[in-house]
Amino acid sequence: MKLDFSRDRSNGFCDELIAANGLPGQSANKLIDCLLQMDAVELNQRLAAVDTAIMTLGITLTIDNDGSNIDRAWPFDIIPRVMPSKKWQRIKSVLK
Question: Could you give the C-alpha distances from 46 to 18, 41, 52, 53, in angstroms and in order?
Answer without folding.
Answer: 22, 9, 10, 11
